[in-house]
Model the fold of this input.
Amino acid sequence: MTVDSIFRIASMTKPITSVAVMQLVESGRVKLDEPAATYLPELSHVQVLEGFDASTGKAKLRPPKTIPTVRQLLSHTSGFAYEFFDPELHGYVATGAVPSLFQGDDGGFLKAPLLFDPGSRWEYGISTDWLGKLVEKVSGQTLEGYFRQHIFQPLGMTDTFFDVSPEKQARVVAVHQRQEDGSFLELSAEPFKPVRFFSGGGGLYSTASDYLKFARMLLDGGKLGNKRILQSATVDQMSRNQIGDLMLVELRSSVPQFAKDSSRIPGSLDKFGLGFGINTKPVEGGRSRGSLAWAGIYNTFFWIDPPRKTCAVIMMQILPFSDDAAISVVEHFERAVYANPADIVASGGRSN
Done:
């Protein structure tokens, strides 16, 4: 590990995609409560999976009561799920009705149905991949091109990208898989090849210092130094509970080598804003009430604590997600960050 090591940040891509969407909202090109099908007509044909016929095993599908809105995609109340966190969708994918998320990189998994009517519950899933397509459709740019022009270049995030250039590939951290005996096995590195589908839900590589620039921008109300990429009122809106009385649900994994069953993200997250989980109660010895956070499947984590003017990023590259040791590292790191509040104030309110 070096300070410029490059990590697969997986679902920590989602907050970046969410910021891109909110930039389009600010410019008037996207409306939060508009059906997403207004921008992506293919969503007008989405169906809800209502289980399987007991006698034939055939999937039962019906039209949703409403088409998911942009806000519901941002807050994961759209009805879309992940196959490895939802047994019903896992069964549907197993029939061959839609491609698996793990097969190919052409975005074929976006053909998956909803699991419930939009707005009726919270479930983590492929919503942000749809938002990535929305950014591309509305902006006329690839997601990579949009991110680079509107987020990465202004913030000086020179080591964040979908495609790792040949001269930087040696800095990419190897992934290790936890074995049954508790040891780690380094996974064989797959050769780098040009990305065909820019996944707004999980396709980016980044460094800890680059992602910290992104987190500091949000901590400072949408700007880093003299570069503003969002209005402070927009960041405030993203940071508020957007799911009402709904609660975040426990993530139960059907692929234990990829994500541990009963996966959790440290920080007591119980609500969701527009792109982030939110904790409505303070963490003992740690972050404040109203902090924002999310994570990536390879055990990368961040949180942003506006009341304490603190943000933090910690990167690992191991599977499964929510590995006990990885969670312990994050929780010890968080307690260390807050161990001496005077040190945080002296450093200008930032923790790295």
Notes: The CA atoms of residues 129 and 199 lie 6 Å apart. The longest helix spans residues 13-26.
